[in-house]
Amino acid sequence: SDSAQFGEAMVNLILMEAKSRGTVQLRSANPFDQPLVEENMLDDPMDLQRMRIAYRHLGEIARQAPIQAIAERVLLGDSDLPLSWLETASDEEVDNFLLAQSSDAQHGIGGCCMGRLGEAVVDPECRVYGLEGLRVIDASIMPLDCQANTNLTSIMIGEKMADSLRRSI
Q: Are 114 and 126 in contact (CB under 8 A)?
């Protein structure tokens, strides 16, 4: 059959503009010590609700004839759960599945957001609030995903700050 050509498919989602916020803290003054990272993915109830709704919708898409025609079996994320599980699972069961399965698989942004004192990590010149002489100049300063190529955006951040630093010398 045609479906044997492709075997299995995996259904995944990416949540853009998440409201959940984690933390990154220094473990010690030693720059070689790994920082303490708490991602808190899907910690915001709205993020979890958006993922649940999207996951159920993606399940509906995957049940359509064109998908079924090319895949013998559609799995949910990185699990052994069949697509049919979504049809009977409660919201709480789907939420628990999402909390267990979610990971940071793409380009991390926003770990050291730029913004106002008290609401962010760095100021508009990428200076870390409360630490003299330290700047963060990478994708982590973006408070929201620009929904464009992260690499190019990071290069532009670097170019802008290189110009700013040259002018200040």
A: yes
At residue 157, what are phi and psi to the nearest 5 degrees?
-60, -45
Predicted TM-score (pTM) of the model is 0.70
> Do 96 and 156 lie in a common domain?
no
Sorted by sequence, the CB contacts under 8 Å of residue 3 that are 6+ apart come out as 68, 69, 70, 71, 72
Verify that 79 and 121 share a domain, yes or no.
Answer: no
Instruction: Please report which helix (H) or strand (E) contains residue 56, including its range.
Output: helix 45-62
Instruction: State the total domains in the chain.
Output: 2
Clarify whether residues 14 and 81 are in a common domain. yes
Which is it for strands 8-11 and 73-76: parallel, antiparallel or unpaired? parallel
Of the three residues 101, 132, 156, the one that is the final residue of a domain is 101
Residues annotated as catalytic (active site), given as ranges: 107
Q: Nearest to residue 39, comparing CAs of 98, 103, 100?
A: 103
pLDDT digits (tens, 9 = 90+) for 118-155: 999 999 999 999 999 999 999 999 988 888 888 999 99
- Clarify whether residues 40 and 93 are in a common domain: yes
